Amino acid sequence: MSYAGKDLNLLIALRTLLEEENVSRAGERIGMGQSSMSSALARLRTQFNDELLVRVGRDYQLTPMARQILPQVQLTIPLIERALGSGGPFDPATSTRVFSIMCSDYAALELAPRFAEALAAAPNIRIEVSPLPENPTDSGRDLLTHDFVIAVPGIGIDGEHRELWIDDYVCVLDPANEAIVDGAITWVAFTELPQAVSDFGQAHLTPAERRMRELGFSRAPHVTTSSFLPLPSVVVGTELVGVLPRRLAERFAAISPIAIIEAPFGRVEIRETLYWHTTHNADTAHEWLKDILSR
User: Fold this and answer.
1) Can you give the pTM of this predicted structure?
2) What is residue 203's predicted lDDT score, i.e. its pLDDT?
3) Do 288 and 234 share a structural domain?
4) What's the CATH number where 230 sits?
């Protein structure tokens, strides 16, 4: 397909190259070999009469023209893809749609029944769940390259949104931990205990961590995990204390010998929120899954 001498089949390659700023990663992302992607870049350079990507040391950087083009391509391609795929109303029974969701393992676990509900109604769809990135990222890009991003407010995600559920934080300890007195733990005792900390990267400081730092306490972890899920098992048989969402703690309390104690830093809410880009608003398939996830 072409228009005025421009090969529109190169649009996907163009967006991927500019987003990844790397020929090899761009090829891996859309299933093209490096030689094919290099060829596509050469053709794009000819079409735009611009280098688009210039090598700086071992990396690439976007040219000024490429930086100008990227947001236009990111907004346009999803609209074209949906227009070409809109041969009729969305039918869950026959759809082969692939939905991409970026979220934490905690959110994925909470939404597992909703995923099952969606797959029961639409057996041929696919739901791909990817983790939230450890490093600060481009909110606009994440919302364009994924159908949904599920996160708490305050980490830089900015788009259309709908609150999914509200949770709060609790402490988890071994039931024999001597810091527990009458089913509670004091703030002083909490700060003196060795800490088991879930570290999600510099982009994702949890609301609980923010509250503790406001109170003048920055946890020095004795054990660090990249997820909430291992924390209940980590504290068993130790003096460690962990902080995690109440819903998750209650799930594990049914299968692990842990004590769930109210957080001594007060109630801190977790407002898990569903984010999406405005270009999805006219997508009936997207709306269908959004409604299921929101139940």
Assistant:
1) 0.71
2) 64
3) no
4) 3.40.190.10
Full residue range of the structural domain in which residue 195 is found: 166-270
Confirm if 279 and 144 have CB atoms less than 8 A apart.
Answer: yes
CA distance 145 to 66: 18
Q: Are residues 144 and 289 in the same domain?
A: yes
What spatial distance separates the first Cα and last Cα of the chain, rounded to whole Å?
Answer: 41
Residue 43 inside a domain? The answer is yes
**Section 160-177 average pLDDT:** 96
Residue 196: both structure tokens together: 């088991």
Q: Which of 98, 169, 87, 163 is nearest to 128 (CA)?
A: 98
pLDDT at 85 over 60: no
pLDDT of 162:
94
pLDDT reported for residue 50: 92
Tokens 């999406």 correspond to: 276
Q: Return left, alpha or beta for 183; rule: phi > 0 is left, psi -120 to 50 is alpha, else beta.
A: left
The residues that bridge with 223 in the sheet, in sequence order, are 196
In this predicted structure, what is the pLDDT of residue 2?
A: 41
> Does 147 share its domain with 284?
yes
